[in-house]
Amino acid sequence: MVTKEFDSYSERKAFDEAKAGVKGLVDARVTEIPRIFRLPQGTLSDKKHSVSASDFAIPIIDFAGVHASRELVVEKIKEAAENWGFFQVINHGVPISVLQEIQDGVRRFFEQDPEVKKSYFTRDAAKKFVYNSNFDLYSSSSCVNWRDSFACYMAPDPPNPEELPVACRDAMIEHAKHMMSLGALLFELLSEALGLSSEKLKSMDCMKGLFMIYHYYPPCPQPELTIGTNNHSDNSFLTILLQDQVGGLQILHHDCYIDVKPIPGALLITNDRFISAEHRVLSNRNETRISVASFFSTNMLPNSTVYGPIKELLSEENPPKYRDFTLEEYTKGYVNKGLDGASHLSSFKI
What we know:
This protein is of the alpha+beta class. The protein has one domain (about 60-350): B-lactam Antibiotic, Isopenicillin N Synthase, Chain (Jelly Rolls). Helices cover about 25% and strands about 20% of the residues. Helix 3 packs across helix 6 and helix 4 crosses helix 6 (about 170-195). The longest helix is centred in the middle third of the chain and has 25 residues, at about 170-195. About 35% of the residues are buried.
């Protein structure tokens, strides 16, 4: 008997051309996941063990007192960003109703009539609104992730309302307004945590662009064989993440993957003073998980600004660890590499 050789590219292409994403596989009631989704054996049970959040004190910072005791909040952010690259924010000023409505909007989009959804399917990153499954489907050497996504820039040049799907249009616009406001405050506090003026990071165009990705992780019949999102670190200046109550997000800390309870979080990279947390999302068998990531970065938008270690933070004792580069140069490499668990930033080390 001749065994047919596994052709990953052809299977990825067939999956892509169906334009139905992972949700389409679930709707077809598959009981075994296609081979392109399968992790190498033992990947999820490697030396980086999963532990409960209760075993570690993941930083939770209360913004209710940011005006009364700003210095205390800044100190907590400094400690969290230096040691974790990740912290959770409560009493952040974004109405719960806004957060709930964007989650509902994401669900409405992915669970609407497949033919309506397919009309938005594209691999053209220049489109105002991009729906597909796995942005790195053809470039990543890792397994295909068990999730579908749509994405768009909500700043500095947002789509016209009619360019957004009716299912989530109003929710996207309202949510983005609040993310811009919260992002402005976070950049001020992070600047102060670095010992810089509160406007320093904003003056470097760190919040010029707001790129939104909306993820939909449907139930998986074999969650132990695949993953929702491969381990990676983000390519933005700052990420604010909203996840629903299903959970599944884990961050790497001291060589352990730690479960993160669902509260928005953030991260930033600055010459290794503040670390960028490596993280991943596990699949689950029973529930659909929804998350919304707000990335403050211009990514592939035209931007001639050259970035590197902040000069005020450098000294003879702390020389630059990275060379200067443009965001376009960085992002092209990040996208071509895909989510393979390795930090793309390391390729710019001096």
